[in-house]
Design a protein that fits this description.
The protein has 964 residues and is an alpha+beta fold. The protein is 38% helix and 12% strand. Strand 6 and strand 7 form a beta hairpin. It comes from Nonomuraea jiangxiensis.
């Protein structure tokens, strides 16, 4: 927030306090919250209108949805208020004798560039510049009323008229499409207004009167409509010449070359809801009911519009985004159409500037998707998707994902319920367009805070807040009976690097802020006869305590939490989540490289390295951080060599882009197919990154269901699927994969497989990690983790080492913490969770598992199948064959995995050589986990798997130094 915004926020009334407006306005749907959602959808519809106009007109880029053709653009006009301004109209900047510079844009109203002689409305947009921190935009059209009385009519009219560039198309739109969408009487009224407004010739824009149509608040005076009319004595204009498509601009330029052009700004006061309605834009405020009162004079000075400077000024003004909400609370826009403009103008302007995107869905995809949804829904009652032939299964998953995108993306960020005026946004720093910010802001240029550090976690399922069930059944009992590991159950298709990798990634994606030890705590009652030591050296207690999550919603929203990491795939675990940390990790001389004395991370005072994310530190994390910090420095060296004129800051940020994208690629096409080891997943995830295989059946299916999947996500445009991007509480829940962590580690020599040490988890974590890394080296650490298996993600396999360990001054049982936090964050219990993800509801424990011991334990802990904790159910569920986790968890994965890529402009529209450099894109294309390992530890080449990823078990070395 800028200092100006802070000052405005201090002076402004609370968001819900708009008493003057509430006296006159009526919200669609009955409340501002419902209306906002409706208007957001209408705004997207207008973006689609812009896209349709571009496609039909063959334009090079997106233009304004309306008023596309600017005719006059000047920035040296003056607005002077009359000295006899009525007393009740003196408020804010409107004071007797006050004078302000103004920007003026006069235009044709159509969304396409057409000859001035074509039937059309004309528009006037003023920006009154009161000061560097206060402007007022006034928008007007040369007809007293709108063809549409409300936003819905306005958008429908725009939709049916988009691209109607011939008499035949206009006739079909007005006499067939419009009645079909809005009814005969409404369509007839709109046609009458349009015909009356556009049916007369316009000789000069200086001779036109322009009406606001909608109302604004004028301080204590209440609502007014305003108009701009030619001043008395304005010279007449000749008849338009034949054959000049731009005669209005030429006439105005000739007029200004001779003399100044003057308009009177006038207002009409509100009388009552019947004579001067606020909500109906199609109703005229007649002068007989409310007289016209001149309040100011607009003067456009004499000048030459045919100079290079004047043309440059007009071009700059053409790029401006005029919006009636660029004002102050005293002059707040009123009425349905104006409130819709808040969303519509922001969306339209952002779309035009390439800050926001719309992805039209082909009709074939809508039709085929609906048919496949119904067909697979029926089929899956008998045959689950994982038992179908590969390509049919791929279509099944695609159909499931479309349903999840429609039903399971919930925006939790607080929004202002009542629209508020706001200042003109400052220009975006050019640096922000080509590099990731430290805190994740400006990934979406139209919504800079989206997905940034501190943005709220979203939801895939409506939250269930049941404080009465926080301790039922007792989470300690659940943990002891169903989670604790008695015997290590290995995941034989993976190595421990896979466990380290997912923790490495989760630290980039999600982190709930916790109250520190001794602050606000969660208290968990212990079963009878049990005690717990909550702090090092503390006394045994009858209650388990640990720091509570810090709520972002306060008492009103106790289950709204902010992410202490950015939500984007931006490598923040390596680089840090704010500028101070990020710069501290670089070489002391300000170079682009990360500071790695002798190739190792630098330990902090507590022995844990100073890096982007340093919590829960252990050998696996140290390996990943060291490896990718070294890779960053290697990329920096390559960029310097290839582009010697690139400065060090640009080298750093370009290397960060490359490393972050390489990590995303490795996770997408290597780690995920390793833990979900089926041909179907391998094909699907590879298609996510680089498009589907050259298989006509697969491509035909995707063409029918999701045409955007034909190229791979990096070749598409950003798409948030109707909901601002964020990671979700449900996503956090399914990535609770602590059973992957073993309790015991064999450290071996990669040359001979000789045992160097046998250690417990406590010996490879915290401050003990870096001395071990330096003693055995990166190559031996990689090898030791590469030849050993992680734990299986299942019941009774939670690491013993994590059942009582010290973290941030507390001694916690992480298995209990996982249960408690999931309940307190409002994640639905397992049966509701799976049902919300469109899986059949369980009616009995036997439908979850057939294992006799598990059934006995479940029934002893839970009263009904509906009480089963989400984490317990996810671990208990039998996964599809070769899957490392459950199908229910997989539902969240197939929704959010593609979303992490699809929403990110640096992995879509800005995944291009101008941003990454050709070297950077080639680096991402040619590299993967194996090549990264071998670049820094080439001695491991013979030990890596031949045909599978680096996350599959490695070959053990033999005493002669070669892989077995």
């Amino acid at each position: 927030m800028t200092k100006h915004e802070e000052r405005r926020a201090d002076k402004a009334p609370a968001v819900h306090e708009v008493p003057a407006a509430e006296r006159y306005e009526r919200y669609v749907g009955g409340s501002p919250e419902v209306e906002r959602k409706i208007f957001d959808r209408l705004a997207r519809d207008l973006m689609l209108v812009q896209w349709k106009i571009k496609e039909r007109s063959g334009a090079a880029g997106i233009d304004r949805a309306f008023h596309a053709k600017g005719i006059v653009g000047v920035d040296n006009a003056r607005l002077a208020f009359r000295r006899d301004l009525p007393e009740d109209l003196r408020t804010g900047f409107a004071q007797p004798g006050a004078e302000y510079p103004a920007v003026v844009r006069l235009s044709n109203a159509s969304g396409v560039h057409q000859p001035d002689a074509a039937p059309d409305l004309r528009g006037a947009a003023l920006r009154i510049e009161v000061g560097p921190e206060e402007t007022h935009d006034l928008l007007m059209t040369n007809y007293p009323v709108s063809h549409a009385k409300n936003a819905r009519e306005f958008v429908v009219f725009a939709q049916v008229m988009a691209g109607a560039d011939s008499t035949l198309r206009k006739g079909v739109a007005l006499y067939a499409k419009l009645p079909w969408r809005l009814g005969w009487s409404t369509a007839a009224r709109m046609r009458r207004n349009v015909t009356a407004a556009t049916g007369r010739p316009v000789r000069s824009l200086a001779l036109e009167t322009y009406w606001s149509r909608g109302s604004i608040l004028w301080g204590p005076a209440g609502p007014v409509r305003y108009r701009l009319r030619p001043a008395a004595g304005t010279p007449a204009a000749p008849h338009p010449p034949q054959g000049d498509p731009d005669y209005l601009g030429h006439e105005f330029a000739a007029r200004l070359a001779r003399a100044e052009v003057v308009f009177d700004l006038c207002v009409q006061r509100y009388t009552n809801a019947r004579l001067t309605p606020v909500e109906n834009g199609a109703a005229e405020w007649r002068e007989a009911d409310t007289p016209v009162i001149p309040v100011a004079t607009l003067t456009i000075p004499r000048q030459d519009l045919d100079t290079a400077q004047a043309r440059a000024t007009a071009l700059r003004i053409d790029q401006l985004a005029f919006d009636p909400w660029h004002t102050t609370d005293e002059f707040r826009p009123l009425g349905n159409l104006n409130r819709a403009r808040r969303a519509a103008y922001e969306a339209s302007s952002a779309h035009r500037r390439g800050h926001r995107f719309v992805v039209p869905t082909p009709k074939r995809n809508l039709i085929a998707g609906a048919l496949l949804e119904k067909g697979f829904d029926a089929l899956n009652r008998r045959v689950p998707w994982d038992r179908l032939p590969t390509y049919l299964g791929l279509l099944n998953i695609e159909a499931i994902r479309q349903v999840l995108r429609r039903d399971n993306l919930i925006d939790t960020e607080p929004h202002e319920p009542v629209p508020r005026p706001h200042p003109v946004a400052p220009p975006i720093d050019e640096h922000l367009r080509g590099r990731r910010t430290y805190d994740g802001t400006y990934n979406d240029l139209s919504a800079p805070r989206m997905g940034a550090l501190g943005a709220a976690f979203g939801r895939n399922l409506p939250p269930v807040h049941r404080p009465d069930l926080f301790d039922t059944p007792n989470p300690v009992t659940v943990s002891r009976e169903l989670l604790h590991r008695d015997t290590f159950l290995p995941a034989r298709s993976l190595n421990i690097l896979a466990a380290a990798w997912i923790q490495f990634q989760v630290h980039d994606w999600v982190e709930h802020k916790r109250h520190p030890a001794g602050g606000q705590s969660v208290e968990v009652p212990l079963p009878p006869g049990m005690t717990w030591v909550n702090t090092p050296g503390g006394a045994p207690e009858g209650t388990m305590r640990f720091g509570a999550d810090v709520s972002a919603g306060g008492a009103e929203s106790p289950i709204l939490f902010a992410n202490s990491a950015s939500h984007w795939w931006d490598g923040s675990e390596v680089y840090g989540g704010d500028e101070t940390v990020a710069k501290s990790l670089r070489e002391p001389d300000g170079g682009a490289a990360l500071h790695l004395p002798e190739g190792h991370l630098v330990p902090g005072p507590d022995g844990i390295p100073i890096t982007g994310f340093r919590n829960n530190w252990w050998l696996g994390l140290s390996v990943m951080h060291t490896l990718f910090a070294r890779e960053h420095n290697t990329v920096c060296a390559a960029l310097r060599s290839q582009y010697p004129r690139m400065d060090e800051d640009t080298v750093y940020h370009t290397a960060r882009l490359v490393i972050s994208a390489l990590i995303a690629k490795i996770h997408t096409v290597e780690w995920t197919p390793a833990i979900l080891a089926t041909e179907l997943i391998d094909i699907g995830l590879t298609a996510n990154w680089s498009g589907p295989p050259q298989n006509w059946l697969a491509r035909l299916g995707l063409w029918l269901v999701d045409a955007h999947a034909l190229t791979g996500i990096p070749e598409t445009l950003p798409d948030h699927h109707g909901v601002p991007y964020s990671l979700t509480e449900d996503f956090v829940t399914v990535y609770r994969m602590h059973p992957l962590i073993p309790d015991d580690y064999r450290i071996a020599d990669h040359r001979s497989d000789r045992t160097l040490d046998t250690l417990g988890f406590h010996d490879v974590q915290g401050a003990a990690t870096e001395p071990l890394m330096r003693r055995v080296g990166l190559a031996n650490s990689l090898y030791s983790l590469g030849i050993a298996h992680p734990g299986a993600i299942t019941l009774r396999n939670f690491p013993r080492a994590l059942q009582a360990f010290e973290r941030s001054g507390e001694i916690i049982d992480l298995s209990v913490v996982d249960l408690v936090r999931t309940r307190r964050r409002g994640v639905p219990r397992y049966n509701d969770f799976r049902t919300g993800l469109h899986k059949p509801r369980l009616r009995s424990f036997e439908e979850l598992t057939s294992d006799p011991d598990t059934l006995t334990r479940l029934k002893s802990v839970y009263r009904t199948v509906d009480d089963i904790d989400t984490v317990v159910g996810l671990y208990a569920e039998n996964p599809p064959e070769h899957f490392g986790f459950s199908d229910t968890a997989f539902r969240i994965f197939i929704l959010m995995a593609s979303r992490r890529l699809q929403s990110d402009r640096f992995l879509t529209v800005d995944f291009r050589p101008e941003i990454y450099t050709p070297l950077g894109l080639d680096w991402i294309e040619r590299n993967g986990m194996k090549s990264v390992i071998l670049r820094h530890c080439p001695e491991l080449a013979s030990l890596l798997p031949r045909t599978t990823s680096a996350f599959a078990p490695w070959r053990a070395s033999t005493p002669d130094g070669h892989g077995a």
